[in-house]
Design a protein that fits this description.
By secondary structure, the protein is an alpha+beta fold. The protein has a domain of about 80 residues. Helices cover about 20% and strands about 40% of the residues. It has five helices and 14 strands. The strands form three sheets. A five-stranded antiparallel β-sheet has the order 2-5-6-13-14, with no helix packed on it. Strands 9-8-10-11-12 form a five-stranded antiparallel β-sheet, covered by helices on one side. Helix 3 packs antiparallel against helix 4. The longest helix has 24 residues. About 25% of the residues are buried.
Length: about 350
């Protein structure tokens, strides 16, 4: 048997999280022969990498960083570094087109209906479906480089005849800013800010200028965050160290076949013991009839999910997997009540029964 695992990747440059699907109510009426078609989901996993991009830029005066400001390790060359900050896994139910069925009600049943997601996955029976919203998780705040330092250079500095002389003059300017800050903090400045707001404005401007000018020696750092999400749809067998993606410190996330990156490995091990019952032919026919007429639902299996990178385990968890489980059925008779219909709520991501209200 040829087993394939489906892998889809998508770059998302936005806050993590997706809006939950809307649900609709489909009535079982004479026009549709009192039957509603529904689909059961199968398990997929959304694996999301949180990546930090750090851009280092060399300052114009980096050779003089130690001499004038005592900075031992200035940025000596422009470079970009990617780091894998976090990895998350979400169990998502997607429509399993091979498991679409019709639930049929008695014509005299009390206004039967089925709640379906937009993609046809069953959510409820005789109960108003709830539109659950997924909370969006914001990306971490990045760090920006300071303002263009050239705007703070004095005329003397701009007219200096050499880079070494410019570096010396800028270093003096930095020390003057630090002295001004100290004088204000100790109350010894000749022109003290008149009030609290003015004090904050002056101190913020001093900090801004000092940071911008210092980066001419130390270099600057700008950071930003983004996520990349991969979707895996397992089949009925275990997955052993499947390469989801590759990650490079110089390039960030790359394709699975790009050897410039190191592999991110995904494993899924079935932990459910499934025993096929040996039934006589008569009971098998009864079971077939029961499944043909009733409401089929999933009983997910359990699995151990592991994600590894660079010989480390980044994620290990127990999870539900529909493909590792089985199915059962609610008999048709359960929905024949003329006065008080039975209500059924499902876990939409699994197709398993959440609650039955009689």
């Amino acid at each position: 048997m040829d087993i394939r695992y489906f892998l889809i990747s998508a770059l998302i440059l936005a806050p993590m999280g997706m809006q939950a699907q809307k649900t609709t109510r489909v009535n079982a009426i004479k026009a549709n022969d009192y039957g509603v078609i529904y689909t059961l989901p199968k398990t997929s996993f959304e694996i999301t990498l949180l990546v930090k991009k750090s851009s280092y830029r060399r300052g114009d005066f980096y050779p003089y960083a130690q001499r004038y400001l005592g900075i031992d390790n200035p940025v000596a060359e422009d470079r970009v570094v990617y780091t894998l900050e976090d990895i998350s896994v979400k169990n998502k139910g997607i429509p399993d087109k091979s498991n679409s069925f019709m639930v049929q009600f008695q014509p005299k049943s009390f206004e039967p209906f089925v709640g379906l997601r937009e993609d046809g996955v069953i959510v409820s029976v005789n109960a108003d479906p709830v539109n659950e919203k997924e909370e969006k998780e914001p990306l971490p705040q990045g760090e920006s480089a300071a303002m263009n330092p050239r705007r703070f250079l004095s005329q003397e500095t701009l007219m200096a005849g050499s880079v070494a002389k410019q570096a010396e003059l800028v270093a003096r300017q930095i020390f003057d800013l630090r002295r001004s800050r100290t004088d204000i903090l100790t109350g010894e400045a000749e022109n003290m800010p008149p009030d609290g707001n003015a004090y904050k404005v002056v101190m913020d401007e001093i900090d801004l200028q000092e940071k911008a000018l210092t980066e001419l020696f130390s270099g600057s750092l700008q950071t930003e965050y983004f996520v990349r999400t991969y979707t895996i749809v397992p089949e009925a067998r275990d997955i052993d160290k499947m390469v989801v993606a590759r990650f490079s410190g110089k390039l960030g996330p790359v394709d699975t076949d790009d050897l410039a990156g190191e592999p991110i490995l995904f494993s899924l091990q079935n932990k459910s013991l499934r025993i096929e019952p040996q039934l006589p032919e008569r009971d098998l026919k009864r079971l077939e009839t029961k499944f043909a007429e009733g409401l089929i639902y999933n009983i997910p299996g359990k699995a151990r999910l592991t994600i590894g990178f660079r010989n480390d385990t980044l994620k290990e968890m127990e999870t539900d997997v529909v493909q590792y489980g089985s199915q059962d059925v609610l008999t048709k008779k359960m929905f024949d009540n003329m006065k008080k219909p039975i209500q059924v709520y499902f876990y939409p991501e699994l197709g398993a029964i959440k609650q039955i209200i009689q």
